[in-house]
């Protein structure tokens, strides 16, 4: 993980990115950590599982 000074202002869901937030870059898509589950299921057809 690296700290950047000139981070984007919002992710692809329109959520504002604040100082200290963690976000991911997938090609042209910027996704906040809080929206990662939505991105994985909607765009990458992923499935969220919970280990017991």
Describe the structure in your own words.
With 52 residues, this protein is an alpha+beta fold. The protein contains 1 helix and 2 strands; from the N terminus they run ββα. It has one helix at 36-43; strands spanning 23-26, 29-32. The chain has a two-stranded antiparallel sheet. A hairpin with a 2-residue loop joins β1 and β2 (29-32). The protein is globular. The model has no long low-confidence stretch (mean pLDDT 92).
| Molecular shape | globular
Query: What strand order characterises the main sheet?
Result: 1-2
The low-pLDDT segments are none
Structural class: alpha+beta
- Encode the helix/strand succession as letters: EEH
Compute the CA-based radius of gyration. 12 Å
Strand fraction equals 15-25%
Topology:
Layout (H helix, E strand, L loop, with lengths): L22 E4 L2 E4 L3 H8 L9
Antiparallel strand pairs: 1-2
In brief:
This protein is an alpha+beta fold and 52 residues long. It is built from one helix and two strands, in the order E-E-H. Strands 1-2 form a two-stranded antiparallel sheet.
